[in-house]
């Protein structure tokens, strides 16, 4: 791991890379392999450069409301994932999946941000299940969310995996075993189930893209 980066270091590096001034850089909760933060970007100069999401009132440069995902650099994240994820987000957008727009992506080489990183537009909303399932303000969302999730998943399946460089082929029956072994504790029911599925697998079908962790938090 390289030297520890402060929030000011990250803000300065982001500003140089994105061509603006980073404001209100705040860490968000969640994320195992990446540090997630929200921030505002005020464009340098007279507000040009294709900034969106700001109002530019009173002659001030427009402000973009963005999200940064920064690999921790501790070996949990695989190299090259940020580029592949950016390509996946763009392909998902083209397929009709509701995803944020990709603003910038980097592999951490000589940019002051360390490991791989990804910047996307910030979309406001709620991800906490108990709020979505119980709070009155989300009653309308509860009526539409199931169908919208199904449409999003179906659209993801239309993305050709071969079109995304760096997207590995996964064997859903064999890949879980090394993961279970790495946990360092016995999970006999899970191991038995995976081994039974591997021994009784159906004929291989067409490869499609799937979301590996589809849930409220993601």
- Structural class, by secondary structure, is alpha+beta
Counted beta strands? 5
Order of helices and strands: HEEEHEEHHHH
Strand content: 15-25%
Q: Report how far the terminal alpha carbons are from each other.
A: 27 Å
- Total DSSP helices: 6
Largest sheet: 5 strands, antiparallel
Looking at this protein, list some descriptive labels:
five-stranded antiparallel beta sheet; alpha+beta; 6 helices; 218 residues
Verbal overview:
By secondary structure, the chain is α+β, with helices and mostly antiparallel strands. Helix content is 32%, strand content 17%. It is built from six helices and five strands, in the order αβββαββαααα. Strand 1 and strand 2 form a beta hairpin. Mean pLDDT is 83; it is low at 46-53.
What is the strand and helix layout of this fold?
Layout: H1 7-18, E1 20-27, E2 34-43, E3 63-71, H2 81-95, E4 102-106, E5 117-121, H3 129-134, H4 139-156, H5 176-182, H6 188-199
Antiparallel strand pairs: 1-2, 2-3, 3-5, 4-5
């Amino acid at each position: 791991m390289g030297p520890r980066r402060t929030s000011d270091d990250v803000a300065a590096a982001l500003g140089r890379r994105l061509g603006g001034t980073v404001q209100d850089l705040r860490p968000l909760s969640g994320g195992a392999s990446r540090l997630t933060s929200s921030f505002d970007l005020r464009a340098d100069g007279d507000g040009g450069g294709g900034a969106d999401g700001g109002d530019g009132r009173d002659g001030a440069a427009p402000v973009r409301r963005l999200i940064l995902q920064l690999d921790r650099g501790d070996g949990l994240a695989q190299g090259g994932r940020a580029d592949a994820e950016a390509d996946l987000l763009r392909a998902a957008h083209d397929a009709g999946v509701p995803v944020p727009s990709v603003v910038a992506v980097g592999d951490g080489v000589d940019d002051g941000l360390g490991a791989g990183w990804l910047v996307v537009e910030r979309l406001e909303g709620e991800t906490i299940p108990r709020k979505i399932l119980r709070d009155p303000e989300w009653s309308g969302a509860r009526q539409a969310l199931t169908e919208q999730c199904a449409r999003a998943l179906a659209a993801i399946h239309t993305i050709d995996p071969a079109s995304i460089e760096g997207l590995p082929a996964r064997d859903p029956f064999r890949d879980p075993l090394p993961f279970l072994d790495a946990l360092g504790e016995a999970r006999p029911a899970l191991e038995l189930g995976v081994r039974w599925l591997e021994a009784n697998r159906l004929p291989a079908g067409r490869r499609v893209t799937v979301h590996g962790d589809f849930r409220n938090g993601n």
